[in-house]
Amino acid sequence: MTKITTLLLALAATFATASAASHCVPETQYKNWEVWAMDQSPSVDPTNSSQQLEYGGGIYVLSSEQALGKDKKTKPFFIDLANETTTLCQKSTGSTPVVPHLIWFNRDQTHASISFLGTGHVVIFEAKTRKPVSCLLMPINPATNQSGVHAVIPTYDEKYYLVANSFGKAAHKISTDFKNNKFELVDTLDVVNCKTISGLPCEGPARPNNIVPCVFELNQTETNNLAFVSLVGGGGFVIDFRKTPMEIVSEYDQTHYYGATCWALPYSGNSFINMAFRPYIPSTGFSWYKFNATGYLNEDPSVNMPEITKVMDFTSNASDIHAITQINDRLVWVADRAIPSIKVVDVLQWKIVNEIFLNDTSVSPPVRRTADWTEITPDCKHIVGSLRGPITVKGDPMFTPGGLPGVMVLDIERNGLTGKVNHVYPLHKEIAGLDYMDVHGLILRKF
């Protein structure tokens, strides 16, 4: 048997094993979907098209037909954040929001939450009218003299938004009343000046940099009370977010949990997994950790308890992970901006079983497709991702820029083991001969 034959048989065995993964379960309650893609670069100055404002940005709403390339006549609906959104924020907070970053929909798909990384604003949009209905400004932390919100994630029961104030190094809780469009900041956890139940400072040698990228629930249930506060410098906190003030019930240091994350995925038994990417310059890869979903008691002063387990480690000098999408209970797609590619991770074997390369090689030179944020369609047929432009507002300058900004749709094939680019909808913002479009945050509205 030749070496090539042996290699081919080994690859075939790996593909066959991974193909045994469960099918993605379609969300049959939804008949359609649309894309909300956010350009985080400032708006074009309406009085001088050759320059940008110092604020604004925009949301492009694409129908599924537009995203898939079936509707080539209709233009996306455009929301210029320099207009109604800025006016609302100036009236509500006395200040102007800058650098729109990420976007989330609540479970009932009625409202979208937008974070502003440059200033710390949170803006809530009503989905049907596509209009802003509330603007709040997260407080500046005296310890950092900054406020900058990275993510605003709704809880499963839709009673709260959990806010990650990155540069303010804080977690906030906003109460929600979607029916009456009323939203109120009700609590703040300062993760610079607080102390944990062990008596250690929240930020210190055990956790050297408490920039907060995301605060998210550990379980997607109506009664869950636990959330994870991710930290850029490593380590993290499990908090009881239903209490006011919010309480730290467990702490982890950077030697046990290294990296930052925005996700918790259900896993076998009473546990969950998340992927910590290492957001430094240059970025260096990612790790997967397995957590217990219960057993967090603030009476236990032990550090790094309940125990977590590192189940996979991927290290590379050229890797920039920013989004993951669960295809089924076995396969997860990991978008790597550095390559750029989609790494397919088998969470039962804990290894990368395939890599889907994204650049358009049909032209010379190849066009770089830097996929950033990704979402799965409710029919389980496609992954939709944002594509960064050549001039980026935020991100690793080595890996983040792309050659074609816009929205990309990939077909999911072989139960998620592989896939291919179906269509790219380009979005451009040319100013003085340069393309400033920088699509980052992306979410699907399902209806």
TrEMBL record:
Renumbered to this chain, the signal peptide range is: 1-20
Keywords in alphabetical order, please.
Signal
- UniProt source species: Mortierella isabellina
Q: Is Signal given among the entry's keywords? A: yes
InterPro entries of this UniProt entry? N2O_reductase_N
Protein name listed in UniProt: Uncharacterized protein
Superkingdom:
Eukaryota
